[in-house]
Amino acid sequence: MAAVAVANGSAVNAVAGPSWATREAHIDKVISRPGPWTDESFEPAEVKTSLRSKCKTLVIGAGGLGCEILANLALTGFKEIHVIDMDEIDVSNLNRQFLFREKDVGRPKAVVAAEYVERRVPGVKIVPYHGKIQDKDDAYYMQFNIIICGLDSVEARRWINATVVNMAQVDPANQDAYKALIDGGTEGFKGQARVILPTITSCYECSLDLLNRQTTYPICTIANTPRLPEHCIEWASVLEWPRVHGDKNIDNDNPDHIQWLLEQASARAERFNITGVTWSLTQGVVKNIIPAIASTNAIVAAACTQEAFKFATTAAPFLNNYMMYSGNEGVYTYTYAYEKRKDCPVCGGESRELEIQKDWPIERLIEMLIETKDLQIKKPSLSGEKGPIYFQAPPQLEEQTRPNLTKTIGEMFEDGDGITVTDASLPFQLGIVLKFVA
Ligand SMILES: [Zn+2]
After folding, report:
1. I need a surface site. Which of 121, 123, 309, 347 has the fewest CB within 10 A?
2. Would you state the pLDDT for residue 378?
């Protein structure tokens, strides 16, 4: 019979079932003695208490990543975990969000996930909150040591990032105000895990330019020199469909329409010796869907949990600070230190400059802001030192400030003037300094 030695020297029966003693024996082995990379301050007894009774962890998101993270944390010996999610379970979640069953459809994800993990891992306490992260204030976030995000929304990530960095900035001398923020993300076969130490490492906002805009292909490539199956599908939907069907729109959910596009795209692909046009790819390109892949979630969630474990135990140095994973062709991971941006509106101290020409209309300034990749804003409102320049809402203010849109930059501003940009997706006010160029 197999027996597993635990830290205190006694032996427990590993075959007896998933009792606490056996479940935690593996974890105890890792934290009962220092390893080659362990921090000097490592103290096994203290580490055990810290992991088992002091460390409070928050998981944001109980979807594809969140389910994995919750189960991993519970099985790694974390004892108090909170989880926030605003969604209810949909039948389409069941293939990968493995804490949910058909009978749970319609119920809050956070609540069902908490019930399931508590039932399967006795001794762990999971506190669910069904709602938005914005419902909670600084005092709520202050109670946690580690915050792990398994989100699919840029907006929510920006909000929690700005909140956590701000807590550290408000009280820089208070060690407890520095929360380790671990962020996981997946997109199809690609994913990443990163560690954010507020004000110390780069933050989420520092790296917004890593985000992809919606994929679009140059029309000349689609029309003349296709190289990818996607080009053929785009050709069928963007050029061939209107030529044949006139004003009739494509209905993404109509199988006959998808079938028609598939046939056209396949014929074109054959002419150009391109392979890979399939039904699901056609549907994906037309609907612009990137499928959620369970194995990518599992890998990224494991990486996030491992970082949380390292924070809670100091058993090994944590990730510095960005790990990317790609399973598109083979399996590849790469780790690097993403650098802090000095003009990051959340964690940087320097003001951000924008080069503009003074004979441009204000309208063009707004377009420039929308096109700036690392700002990720859609409907910015502007104000200057003297008051509103252009407000997108409410309607009365929009009407009153609309005449400013056609005025020139030079009429409204001096070189070096500051403007404040607000937008629904910005969790903060963005200050920008205008720099006139010829
Ligand atoms: Zn930053």
Report:
1. 123
2. 84
Please give the angle made by the CA atoms of 334, 289 and 220, to the nearest 5 degrees: 90
- pLDDT value, residue 41: 84
Q: Are residues 230 and 367 in the same domain?
A: no
In tens, the pLDDT along 255-296 reads: 999 999 999 999 999 999 999 999 989 988 888 777 789 999
Concatenating the DSSP letter of every residue in 139-199 gives HHHHT-SEEEEE-S-HHHHHHHHHHHHHHHHHSTT-GGG--EEEEEEEETTEEEEEEE-TT
What was the pLDDT predicted at 212?
Answer: 64
| Alpha carbon distance 206, 192 (integer Å) | 15
- What is the Å distance from ligand 1's center to 161 Cα? 9
Q: If you ran DSSP here, which 8-state letter would residue 409 be given?
A: H
Same structural domain for residues 207 and 225? no
Quote the pLDDT of residue 174: 93
Q: Which residues are catalytic?
A: 220
Same domain, 95 and 228: no
End-to-end CA distance of the chain: 82
Distance 292 CA to ligand 1 centre (A): 28
Ligand 1 centroid, distance to 424 Cα (angstroms): 19
